[in-house]
Amino acid sequence: MWGLQILFTLDDGLVIETVIIPNGDRGRNTVCVSSQVGCAMNCQFCFTGRMGLRRNLTAAEIVEQAVFARRLFTSEVGSIRNVVFMGMGEPLQNIENVITAADIMVDEQGLHFSPNKVTISTSGLVPQIKQFLRESKCALAVSLNATTDEVRNWIMPINRKYNLKLLLDTLREELSLKHKYKVLFEYVLLAGVNDSIDDAKRIIDLVKGIPCKINLLTFNPHSGSHFQPSTNEKMIEFRNTLAEGGCVVFMRPSRGDDQMAACGQLGNPGELQAPLLKVPPRFQTSLEPLV
Fold first, then answer.
1. Which of these is catalytic: 17, 61, 174, 186?
2. CB–CB of 146/169 below 8 Å?
3. pTM (2 decimals)?
4. Which of 62, 90, 104, 289 could form a disulfide with 110 if both were Cys (CB 3.0 to 4.6 A apart)?
5. Which burial class, exposed, middle or buried, applies to 265 when counting CB atoms under 10 A from its CB (0-12, 13-18, 19+)?
């Protein structure tokens, strides 16, 4: 079993999705929680982004996902040890409720998770990153996914507001104030778009001076997407280049994509969908057959 997908119908009839990710026979399972119904970020590789944003979740609605997951998984199967805010939504766009929910999750009178086992992910909202790093003890993951503003402006439109230099300079500055804290960079490899060896070499330069780990993720294809996953050989070559450059890097296999329960596949866009953005000219050839 790769991913157990749970649908919650909220009081107003809207539906959110939560995924439990089993961790083999080690019993350290992860629950992936949603923070919004839909998402406003419109990342071009993400299915949830097609929905647009319907509303923020309350702190209670976020915490309940973790509570339910804990009830569902008995000690025989292995308990839930990790929480990742990587379901539907941009967590830091709902920062007050997300910080409150994370506080409840780590409080010994609450769910009593270890703070470094609760990870909040963001596409790169700079003011909210500053607030989060100053107010929360939990872990931070930043979706990087590109090494130039040209590519990131296209696949992650938030970059047009907070570009790579501003994002990385902010992390460099904020993390210099924290003790033994590492940010997790997530990097979804897209064939012919962001998976070149030059991209890997640029990452080495971009993250200099930032205490970090890098997660290389497989792209999970979905309807309406014109991207394809990088080959396994390409991913290994990319990982090795980063490792040789001194980066701490992991390669994560996809979990749940056979049932649309994997990263970037949650949600039901419906008839009204966020727009697909114009492909930069130099990438049109490699994507043309896929559109």
1. 17
2. no
3. 0.90
4. 104
5. buried
Q: How many CB atoms are located within 10 Å of the residue 251 CB?
A: 16
Cα–Cα distances (Å) from 259 to 4, 51, 62, 103, in that order, read 9, 18, 23, 31
Distance CA 166, CA 74 (A): 44
Q: Maximum Cα–Cα distance for the chain, whole Å? A: 56
**Residue 53 and residue 70: Cα distance in Å, rounded?**
28
Place of tokens 């993720």: 217
Amino acid at 140: L
132 vs 127: CA distance, rounded Å: 9
Q: What is the pLDDT along the chain (291 residues), one digit of tens a residue?
A: 457 899 999 999 999 999 999 886 666 899 999 999 999 999 999 888 888 999 999 999 999 999 999 998 865 567 899 999 999 999 999 999 999 999 999 999 999 999 999 999 999 999 999 999 999 999 999 999 999 999 999 999 999 999 999 999 999 999 999 999 999 999 999 999 999 999 999 999 999 999 999 999 999 887 667 899 999 999 999 999 999 999 999 997 655 444 444 444 455 555 556 667 778 887 876 674 544
238/230 Cα distance (integer angstroms) = 10
Residue 17 bears catalytic tag: yes
Catalytic residue among 43, 263, 271, 288: 263
Residue in this structure with the two tokens 């919650």, named with its chain if needed: 8
Per the CB < 8 A criterion, the answer to whether 128 and 77 are in contact is no
Tokens of 12: 């107003």
